[in-house]
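Thread title: Can someone regenerate the structure for this chain?

I was given the following input by a collaborator and told the matching structure tokens would be attached. They weren't. Posting the sequence so someone can regenerate them.
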Amino acid sequence: MNARTVLVLALVWCGACGGSADDEDPKPACLDVTPLLGTWEGNYMQVSTLHSYPMILEVQKVKDCTCSGVVRWPTLSNSITAMEGYADNQYYYFTEATLLQGSSTLILKGTYVATLLSGQATGLGKDQLGGNWYFPDQNPFKPPYTAYPHGGIYTVVKK
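Best answer:
Regenerated them for you:
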């Protein structure tokens, strides 16, 4: 078989298999961050102490795959932190970048990893955002894993 015959057979085979990868719908670069806009209220539980704290997440701006706003901690000296976030095509990520007001005992620059459940899925009629919070030096996606590899668990509901 000569090279030309091999090339023609390869092209025919590719066509029979459904074409090229270019014909497939590409995965989105990120989850849509628009549904995050607004105020979310709920609780954060510190795993090491099992203490629960009310938290209010206010997503004030969204653009492309990013968002920003503030996190309010009413029972922790009315602390307010600046929040920055982004999404990939699977999760939402947030970090409290700076303390704007309140208690200096808050740990900044940890990572919140979240999933979004629609109001229909929760049965509450309201969207719910929740997941784990990881200390600044932890990578939530790399071992070593322990029984509690994260610093806290949180759930907030859209108001």
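The first strand starts at residue 38 and ends at 46.
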